Amino acid sequence: QVQLVESGGGLVQPGGSLRLSCAASGLTLANYAIGWFRQAPGKEREGVSCISSTDSSTYNIDSVEGRFTISRDNAKNTVYLRMNILKPEDTAVYYCATSEACGRGQYGSGWYRSERYDYWGQGTQVTVSS
Hints:
mainly beta, six-stranded mixed β-sheet, 10 strands, globular, 130 residues, 44% strand, 0% helix
Protein backbone atom coordinates (compact mmCIF):
# COMPACT_ATOMS: atom_id res chain seq x y z
CA GLN A 1 0.00 0.00 0.00
CA VAL A 2 1.37 3.36 -1.06
CA GLN A 3 1.46 6.04 1.60
CA LEU A 4 2.93 9.52 1.68
CA VAL A 5 3.21 11.22 5.04
CA GLU A 6 4.03 14.90 5.46
CA SER A 7 5.43 16.30 8.68
CA GLY A 8 7.20 19.36 10.02
CA GLY A 9 4.40 21.88 9.86
CA GLY A 10 3.51 24.18 12.71
CA LEU A 11 3.12 27.75 13.88
CA VAL A 12 5.98 30.13 13.08
CA GLN A 13 6.45 33.88 13.21
CA PRO A 14 6.92 35.91 10.03
CA GLY A 15 10.52 35.68 8.91
CA GLY A 16 10.95 32.26 10.47
CA SER A 17 11.77 28.91 8.91
CA LEU A 18 10.38 25.41 8.72
CA ARG A 19 11.43 22.21 7.03
CA LEU A 20 8.69 19.95 5.78
CA SER A 21 9.31 16.26 5.16
CA CYS A 22 7.52 13.86 2.85
CA ALA A 23 8.20 10.24 3.74
CA ALA A 24 7.00 7.36 1.61
CA SER A 25 6.14 3.73 2.14
CA GLY A 26 5.12 1.28 -0.53
CA LEU A 27 7.09 3.03 -3.25
CA THR A 28 10.56 4.37 -3.95
CA LEU A 29 10.52 8.17 -4.17
CA ALA A 30 13.72 8.17 -6.21
CA ASN A 31 11.69 6.83 -9.14
CA TYR A 32 9.25 9.74 -9.09
CA ALA A 33 9.15 13.44 -9.47
CA ILE A 34 7.82 14.91 -6.25
CA GLY A 35 5.74 18.04 -6.00
CA TRP A 36 4.78 20.16 -3.04
CA PHE A 37 1.40 21.85 -3.15
CA ARG A 38 -0.46 24.07 -0.73
CA GLN A 39 -4.03 25.09 -0.14
CA ALA A 40 -5.10 28.05 1.92
CA PRO A 41 -8.65 28.44 3.25
CA GLY A 42 -11.00 29.54 0.49
CA LYS A 43 -8.34 29.20 -2.20
CA GLU A 44 -7.49 26.62 -4.81
CA ARG A 45 -4.64 24.21 -4.34
CA GLU A 46 -1.46 25.55 -5.96
CA GLY A 47 1.81 23.96 -6.91
CA VAL A 48 4.76 25.28 -4.91
CA SER A 49 7.81 23.27 -5.95
CA CYS A 50 8.77 20.16 -7.87
CA ILE A 51 11.93 18.06 -8.00
CA SER A 52 12.58 15.68 -10.87
CA SER A 53 13.58 12.05 -10.51
CA THR A 54 16.23 12.07 -13.23
CA ASP A 55 18.61 14.95 -12.56
CA SER A 56 16.96 16.54 -9.49
CA SER A 57 16.04 19.64 -11.47
CA THR A 58 13.79 21.87 -9.41
CA TYR A 59 10.93 24.20 -10.19
CA ASN A 60 9.29 26.83 -7.98
CA ILE A 61 6.50 29.30 -8.23
CA ASP A 62 7.65 32.89 -8.33
CA SER A 63 6.28 33.74 -4.89
CA VAL A 64 8.62 31.28 -3.15
CA GLU A 65 11.68 31.59 -5.40
CA GLY A 66 14.74 32.30 -3.28
CA ARG A 67 12.92 31.38 -0.06
CA PHE A 68 11.90 27.73 -0.49
CA THR A 69 14.20 24.86 -1.45
CA ILE A 70 13.05 21.39 -2.42
CA SER A 71 15.47 18.49 -2.04
CA ARG A 72 15.48 14.72 -1.76
CA ASP A 73 17.34 12.12 0.29
CA ASN A 74 16.91 8.88 -1.61
CA ALA A 75 18.59 6.84 1.11
CA LYS A 76 15.84 7.94 3.51
CA ASN A 77 13.11 7.76 0.86
CA THR A 78 12.19 11.30 1.83
CA VAL A 79 11.72 14.65 0.10
CA TYR A 80 12.05 17.94 1.92
CA LEU A 81 10.80 21.47 1.52
CA ARG A 82 12.93 23.99 3.35
CA MET A 83 10.98 27.20 3.83
CA ASN A 84 12.79 30.38 4.87
CA ILE A 85 11.65 33.97 5.37
CA LEU A 86 8.09 32.77 5.83
CA LYS A 87 5.27 35.22 5.27
CA PRO A 88 1.66 35.20 6.49
CA GLU A 89 0.56 34.46 2.91
CA ASP A 90 2.45 31.15 3.09
CA THR A 91 -0.14 29.91 5.59
CA ALA A 92 -1.77 26.80 4.15
CA VAL A 93 -1.99 23.04 4.33
CA TYR A 94 1.02 21.65 2.47
CA TYR A 95 0.86 18.39 0.53
CA CYS A 96 3.40 16.28 -1.28
CA ALA A 97 2.54 14.19 -4.32
CA THR A 98 4.18 11.93 -6.89
CA SER A 99 4.34 12.25 -10.65
CA GLU A 100 6.23 10.68 -13.54
CA ALA A 101 7.93 13.99 -14.21
CA CYS A 102 7.89 17.65 -13.28
CA GLY A 103 5.84 18.73 -16.26
CA ARG A 104 6.95 18.38 -19.86
CA GLY A 105 10.09 19.31 -21.69
CA GLN A 106 13.20 21.14 -20.70
CA TYR A 107 11.36 23.77 -18.69
CA GLY A 108 8.94 21.45 -16.93
CA SER A 109 5.90 22.94 -18.56
CA GLY A 110 2.82 22.42 -16.42
CA TRP A 111 4.62 20.97 -13.41
CA TYR A 112 2.26 22.89 -11.12
CA ARG A 113 -0.92 21.22 -12.45
CA SER A 114 -2.28 18.95 -9.73
CA GLU A 115 -3.88 16.58 -12.23
CA ARG A 116 -0.38 15.48 -13.26
CA TYR A 117 0.16 13.94 -9.82
CA ASP A 118 -0.98 10.53 -8.64
CA TYR A 119 -0.32 9.71 -4.99
CA TRP A 120 -0.95 12.37 -2.36
CA GLY A 121 -0.25 12.71 1.33
CA GLN A 122 -2.74 13.92 3.92
CA GLY A 123 -1.11 17.31 4.37
CA THR A 124 0.56 19.27 7.16
CA GLN A 125 -0.58 22.66 8.42
CA VAL A 126 1.76 25.63 8.21
CA THR A 127 0.66 28.80 9.97
CA VAL A 128 2.71 31.98 9.77
CA SER A 129 1.54 34.50 12.31
CA SER A 130 2.84 36.81 15.00
